[in-house]
Amino acid sequence: MTISMSTPDFLIERDRDRCIKCQVCVRQCANEAHFWDEEEQKVKANDALCVDCHRCVTYCPTHALTIRKYPLEFRENANWTASTIKAIYRQAETGGILLTGMGNDRPYPIFWDHLLLNASQVTNPSIDPLREPMELKTFLGRKPDQLKVEDGRLVEEIPPQLELEVPIMFSAMSYGSISLNAIKSLAAAAERVGIMYNTGEGGLHKDLYKYGKNTIVQVASGRFGVHPEYLQAGAAIEIKIGQGAKPGIGGHLPGEKVGLEVSQTRMIPEGTDAISPAPHHDIYSIEDLSQLIYSLKEATQYQKPVSVKIAAVHNIAAIASGIARAGADIIAIDGFRGGTGAAPLRTRDNVGIPIELALAAVDSRLREEGIRNQVSLVVGGSIRNSADVVKAIALGADAVYIATAALISLGCHLCQKCNTGKCNWGIATQNPQLVKRLNPEIGAERAANLIMAWEHEIKELLGGMGINAVESLRGNRLMLRGVGLSDRELNILGVLPAGE
Amino acid sequence: MLREGEVRIPSGCAISGIMNKKGEVFSGHDIIQSIALMHDRSNGLGGGFAAYGIYPDFPDHYAFHLFYESAEAKEKTETYLNMLFHIAESGKIPTRRVPSVKNAPLAWRYFAKPKPDALFEDESEDELVVRAVMYINAHFSGSFVVSSGKNMGAFKGVGYPEEMGEYFRLEEYKGYIWTAHGRFPTNTPGWWGGAHPFTLLDWSIVHNGEISSYGANRRFLEMFGYKLTMQTDTEAITYAFDLLLRKQNIPLDIAIATLAAPFWRDIERMSLEKQTLYKAVRTVYGNLLLNGPFSIILGSNKGIVALNDRLKLRSLVAATQADVLYIASEESAIREICPEPEKIWAPRGGEPVIGLFEEGGIQK
Predict the structure, then answer these.
(1) What Cα–Cα distance (Å) separates residue A9 from each residue in A12, A60, A306, A363?
(2) Which residues does chain A have within 8 Å of residue B264's beta carbon, measured at their own beta carbons?
(3) Cα-flanking dihedrals φ and ψ of residue B277, to 5°?
(4) Using one digit for the tens of pLDDT, what is the confidence trace for A131-181?
(5) How many CB pairs below 8 Å do chains A and B form together?
(6) Are residues A395 and A485 in the same domain?
């Protein structure tokens, strides 16, 4: 065997004056980057194993640890960057597809950061959310063209709606890709703040049925954990067609993550790989999708809205229009920056389009066709803060999905190693020793805090614009101006340039 | 410089309205006097009136008021109108010289009835008129439909409202409803079509405020085929009422609850049945909620409705005296023409003042 040409990504620096040899770093690091040298009676590190997740840094009682980018540099080359070269070394060693976790980290344009919000000055007053009601309540589901009212009563019921106190939901993450404690955290947080979380394709663990009214249950290509009770358990059902991080490909949960509980929840044998095919093998076209939508509606007596989740791809506007006409009540679009528990690197970094452009194109198309009110639009991938939420709603979204931000609130440090199952923060792992590091009660509080903090910020931003109900922001692109965008991009976004 | 319609121009304003609930007609003198008192609320860049009951000789004809900027525009528009309508009578709208009024377009009116063969299948006469108005405003450059309702008309232009009243000789007309508008645009509108009231069929709106939901309202209305050529709040509000009341037959109180929706905290305290209804209203028509400050008077041949935004961010006062309902931006504008009304009050935010002929009274 030849020597490996891979060099470390990170350098672990230990201040020997500060280190008290308590070895907490050794115990905390599931990657085994720290070890105790019995002979020298010293804590040492193997830099090559470090993923820069900050677990050791956070737990070191004397702040003796610093993680840096490994200083070794290749000869400068704008074309052949270090990551490109290292990828080739890895593939030359393994002959395999490169895998990664979390969302696209490449420096593509972030359109959120080229959009600016409006505020009231003189001609209309801004509104102080501390003095006046500021309403964020949002309904997701099919809206009829008109109401029928007679003698002060509604004579025709409107289709089922999801009611959200804040237009934010936790996006799909399956049990298997993340730990039960992570899901419990999000489910309890969703219940506390009046929003939804999403099961992903991993089924619904028996401990989670009590959060039903805050749950969107997913039906994906592997159909894991799908049974009548499961469909009835949630407030809505989501058909997952695609995911922003890996449009066009399926999923693979390796057998080592399929322990007893995952196996029971997913209804597959313990220790077997859970493979979600790339397409649903009963959906090869739009009319097949329509059949599945109505099968699910039949199965739940038309009492629950059905959502269809797709990745933002080139022809997104036409696809979304087809999905609306196929009977979906909600369309969830996941942008190319959306996160993942595991995806092929080249797919994650090169397939799909930005959510901002996809959202603008879909909202405009559905309006041109006069069917925008027939579906709700939910977008994700990636919504990073409350300003992104406000901009997304102004572009036309009814609500947003967040997943990466939600995991960060639980302690994720975006080390992009979810696929390894060694998450030191107890999130993307099934190792019981690691899972118990995440206390679901504390997790719920942190995730709920995040939503409440964003809620306050959204109210401040709305009030500044002179708006006191979120429905007046929805699709209100006059509240946006673009900076540093081409005419064509402004055109697609449907916003004016700043100054106009 | 871009003119109104090509650019969005926010405005402050004064509004006033008078209605005789028995349907007795009175001259335009009072409304001019009332709006003139609020001279300082406008800046000479827009004033106008809507009057109902002024054409008793043609009660069943659509009264088209048009502005023309050229003879060519008039010729083209008339060819189009003649294609769709039988015109019973037409002529110049009488005006008098007012030194301060400049650059007036030619103002012409037509009393018209749709030709039966001009109607599309399933199209009502009202819908044909709406189609014609949208078409003229969008396609005939230099032509603008000022109003198109039966037994009513709008008179407006660039100037102070009292100057417009004098210019259009409104003291010579007699109507049972008069509304008026004085405008304080933050930009030069450049042409007469941009002044208010804005009308469609026999709806007219005078409006004071700047709605911050305009973009959302506009995009919702566009889905139902409305073309918003003026980019003004008033236009959007007019179409919102037209959609709800005329096209969708929504009861007036529900239409009002759409535009100035009750807060969720108030809905929570309603009976279960009402909760279901108001929840549905906000779910389905959320994009029609008017957000930000406004006070409006909606006129029609059935009566008037005055409404404030739900936070009451604009002034609005109402009063009654015998059979007459008064509404104005300021109390002084009412007392100017009715010094001692029997009742005078400031309606709460989102609480409409409704004056209808049929119901035979004024509801608070």
Answers:
(1) 10, 21, 44, 42
(2) 133, 135, 137
(3) -65, -50
(4) 999 999 999 999 999 999 998 899 999 999 999 999 999 999 999 999 999
(5) 123
(6) yes
- Give domain status of residue A26, yes or no: yes
Asked whether residue A180 falls in the same domain as residue A81, the answer is: no
| ipTM of the shown complex | 0.89
CB atoms within 10 A of CB A165: 15
pTM surpassing 0.90?
Answer: yes
Report yes or no: B286 at the A interface, CB cutoff 8 Å. Answer: yes
Query: Considering only CA atoms, which of B264, B312, B348, B293 is closest in space to residue A133?
Result: B264
A110 inside domain = no
**Position A104 in a domain:** no
Tell me if residue B13 is catalytic.
yes
Search chain A and give the residue with CA nearest B243.
Answer: A146
Cα separation, B98 vs B95, whole angstroms = 9
What is d(CA A475, CA A466) in angstroms, rounded to the nearest whole number? 16
The tens digit of pLDDT for each residue in A261-312 reads 999 999 999 999 999 999 999 999 999 999 999 999 999 999 999 999 999 9
The string of DSSP letters for A187-239 reads HHHHHHHT--EE-TTS---GGGGGGGGGEEEEE-TT-TT--HHHHHHSSEEEE
Per-residue DSSP letter, B209: E
Last residue of a domain, one of A96, A121, A152: A96
Q: Which DSSP letter does residue B298 get? A: E
3-state secondary structure of B71: helix
Residue linked to tokens 């219940």: A191
Closest alpha carbon to B223 in A393, A362, A368: A368
> Quick one: tokens of A205?
């663990």
Domain count within chain A: 2
Question: What one-character DSSP code corresponds to residue B288?
Answer: G
In a domain, A132, yes or no: no
Q: Which of A76, A96, A116 is the last residue of a domain?
A: A96
In a 3-state reduction of DSSP, which class is residue A329?
coil
Structure tokens that stand for A113 in this block: 């950061």
Query: Percent of chain A scored above 90 by pLDDT?
Result: 96
Four-point Cα dihedral A382, A385, A388, A393, nearest 10: 100
A161/A227 same-domain check: yes
Q: Which residues of A touch B261 (CB under 8 A)?
A: 469
**Same-domain pairing of A274 and A344:** yes
- Claim to verify: residue A84 and residue A197 sit in the same structural domain: no
B362 domain residue, yes or no:
no
- With beta carbons under 8 A apart, name residues in chain A contacting B310: 468
- Token readout for A198 is 């999403």
Angle, CA B78 vertex, CA B72 and CA B81 arms, to 5°:
145
Residues A485, A377 within the same domain:
yes
**CATH number where A368 lies:** 3.20.20.70
Whether residues A180 and A322 share a domain: the answer is: yes
What are the φ/ψ torsions at residue B39 (nearest 5 degrees)?
A: -45, -45
Q: Are strands A65-69 and A10-14 parallel, antiparallel or unpaired?
A: antiparallel
Residues in chain A: 500
**Domain boundaries, position A92:** 10-96
Q: Which domain holds residue B156?
A: 11-208+315-346
Q: Give the residue from A115, A127, A130, A147 with the most B CB atoms within 10 Å of its CB, the best one to mutate.
A: A147
pLDDT at residue A269 in the model: 95
Are A168 and A389 in contact, with CB atoms under 8 Å apart? yes
| Yes or no, beta carbons of A132 and B291 under 8 Å apart | no
| Within a domain: B305 | no
Tokens of B11: 């405005």
* Residue B138, in any domain of the structure: yes
Instruction: Pick the catalytic residue from B13, B201, B267, B316.
Output: B13
Query: Is residue B254 in some structural domain?
Result: no
- Of all residues in chain B, what percent are helix, strand and coil, respectively (each to 5)? 30, 30, 40
**What CATH number did the domain enclosing B51 receive?**
3.60.20.10
Residue with tokens 């006469």: B125
Q: Please count the structural domains in chain B.
A: 1
Residue A309 identity: K
